[in-house]
Amino acid sequence: xxxxxxxxxxxxxxxxxxxxxxxxxxxxxxxxxxxxxxxxxxxxxxxxxxxxxxxxxxxxxxxxxxxxxxxxxxxxxxxxxxxxxxxxxxxxxxxxxxxxxxxxxxxxxxxxxxxxxxxxxxxxxxxxxxxxxxxxxxxxxxxxxxxxxxxxxxxxxxxxxxxxxxxxxxxxxxxxxxxxxxxxxxxxxxxxxxxxxxxxxxxxxxxxxxxxxxxxxxxxxxxxxxxxxxxxxxxxxxxxxx
Length: 242
Hints:
- By secondary structure, the protein is an alpha/beta fold.
- 44% of the residues lie in helices and 21% in strands.
- It has 8 helices and 7 strands.
- The chain has helices at 15-37, 42-54, 70-75, 90-102, 141-151, 171-190, 196-206, 211-219, and strands spanning 60-64, 82-87, 109-113, 126-132, 152-163, 223-230, 235-241.
- Helix 1 (15-37) packs across helix 4.
C-alpha cells in the first residue's frame, strides 16, 4: 500500500515529514502544474464533490489535505458558516491564504497547519469532511480515517476525491503510460523538486481504489461507503456517513 512509499528514498524522515517537505518544495508550482497534468479535468471532479457535500446543507466543513485551498474555495459557494482547511504543508497553506484573501473569503475560510492523524478539534465538530487527493499521503491510513470519524458529527458526510486506476482497455494501458512516464517527466521539467511527481505517480498506481477503499472506510467505522468513478476511472469520488 502507498503508506509504505515515501517521496525521498534516502531520507531518514518519516513519511509524514517527507510529504510536508515535498509539498513545501512544490507549493509555488503546484496549481499551474496540477492544471497541466490533469488537463484541467480536476476542476470538474471537484465540482462533483461540492455538489455531493452540498446535499446535506453543511454549516461546518473541514477540508483535510487542503493544499492551496482549491476545494475549500469552491465549497464556499455552499454558503456554510465556516470552512477549515487543514494541511501539514505551511508552504501550500501560504499560497492558499493568498487565494482566499484575493477572493475576500478570509472570514469564512481558515487555513491551519495540522495533521490528519491528530485533528485539533473536539469530537462531533463538523457536518462534512472532505479530502481531495490526500488520503494516499496519510502515513497511517487507518489512524487518519478513525480521527476523521471522531470529529465528524453523527449523520455527517465524508467525501474523498482520489486517484484510481482504470480497469478497461484502452484507458488502463493509457493511464499506466501517462502516470509511469509522462507525469514524472513533466514534474522534472517544470518543478523545483525532481522527485515529487515520481512519488505522486507511484502512489497513484498503488493506492487501493473502488470497492477496496470502500471496505477500508467501513472497516474503520463509516457507513454506506460508495464510490463513483470519474473520467473512465482515472479518479474516484467516495462518500460515506457517520
